[in-house]
Amino acid sequence: MNRILTIQLEWKYFPVNYLEEPISISFETGNLDIKNGVAIANIDPDLYHADNSIQEVLTRQIESRLHAVQVMTHRDFELSGPSRTDIREDRKKNHFLEVESCIHTEGT
User: Which domain of life is it from (predicted)?
Assistant: First the structure.
């Protein structure tokens, strides 16, 4: 299998026009772009695997930016959890599916 060049995390937020202008944040061996209802982080695979908190840290960064807008506009937003895609040397992609567990109980 070909080597992984970058790990891409993607969050979706609604409404898509929530931000007045795009936001770009650079961090150690990666970047995060937030615009048009989508936040995409491109992360060096070595950094991603070495730091198991990076996904949570980036989610907090996005939430922080969206909360700042919320304070100014008094408009609510929705933010999805991240999806992960590995981009390989041959430009093919590995998509990961994360499922959240839940328990459903019926009342009597």
Answer: Bacteria
Residues 45-91: pLDDT tens digits? 999 999 889 999 999 999 999 999 999 999 999 999 999 999 999 98
| Among the listed residues 65, 26, 30, 64, the one whose alpha carbon sits nearest the alpha carbon of residue 44 | 30
**Full domain range(s) for residue 38:** 4-89
- Do the domain assignments include residue 76? yes
Listed in sequence order, the residues at least 6 apart from 77 whose beta carbon sits closer than 8 Å to its beta carbon are 13, 14, 15, 18, 66, 69, 70
Q: Where are the alpha helices (DSSP H) in 1-108?
A: 45-50, 54-73
